[in-house]
Write a structure and sequence with these properties.
This protein is 27% helix and 20% strand. The chain is of the alpha+beta class and 162 residues long. A 3-stranded antiparallel β-sheet has the order 4-1-6, covered by helices on one side. Strands 3-2-5 form a 3-stranded antiparallel β-sheet, with no helix packed on it.
């Protein structure tokens, strides 16, 4: 890392880490779990150039950047962990002719770095009234499906739905 950006980058990382931890605590508590239970989230800082889109009811919509704001992305894996309490949204990045789009993603994986460990809905969220909506799978299998699929194919999460 160049000397000129080292201090500000390390400060930024420190604050993003604290924000990620706070969001995990809040999301865990929203599910009725201990504050340190969750992992897997993406925070995205983007400049003023639009390029992120989300799919809603079959139509793509721009996510207009808010100066100093962050996009919080609850992805497929957090949807599986929460047994569909939290929903992932299909999204994409597009190019445009307005200018250079700059994004700084921060990925939080928590305990998801264990590729050989079974992954599925959190046991405490499963009950007779709320049965599992996904079968357990290995993260390495999910990652392989994710990396081998195109944007128009069946999403990897669909392979694990019950």
């Amino acid at each position: 890392m160049p000397e000129v950006c080292r201090r500000s980058t390390m400060e930024y990382i420190k604050h993003m880490k604290r924000l990620g931890e706070t969001l995990f605590e809040l999301l865990s508590e929203a599910l009725g779990l201990q504050p340190d239970h969750l992992g897997i989230l993406t925070l995205l800082l983007q400049n003023h150039i639009t390029g992120l889109q989300v799919l809603h009811k079959g139509q793509w919509f721009d996510v207009r950047p808010t100066r100093g704001g962050l996009v919080v992305n609850i992805g497929d894996l957090l949807q599986v962990l929460s047994n569909d309490t939290f929903k992932s949204v299909k999204h994409r990045a597009i190019t445009n002719r307005v200018g250079t789009r700059i994004t700084v993603p921060c990925f939080f994986s928590g305990h998801a770095t264990l590729l050989e460990k079974p992954f599925g809905p959190i046991k405490e969220l499963i009950s007779e009234a709320n049965p599992p909506r996904y079968k357990e799978f290995l993260l390495k299998d999910y990652v392989a499906k994710f990396l081998s699929s195109s944007l128009d194919n069946k999403p990897p999460i669909d392979y694990y739905k019950l």
